[in-house]
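Issue 218. Parser rejects a valid record. Input:
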Amino acid sequence: MDSTGIYVGVVAGPCKVIYKTEWGCPEGGEDAVRLEADCNPSYSDLPAEEYIAFWKQACVEIIERLMEALDQTTVTISFSDGGIVYLQRSQNK
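Output the parser choked on:
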């Protein structure tokens, strides 16, 4: 919130990610954390569309920081309006 001015409340819970074993998926799936957040534009004086756009960008910035802190290389962000952001970080960092 300090850097974006947008508050993003999150619900976090454990989950499993399952993908092809040829890509390195361990038996039974990879342990992961699923994050869910809701955007409520009524908490802002901005027009709803503008606030939602800022909120989405704040979500992406937060996830990018989490990726770095948790040494993640890929993350998919799905928005309820159908938008998808796929983040991939170089393993050389």
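Fixed in the parser; the record now loads. The first strand starts at residue 11 and ends at 17.
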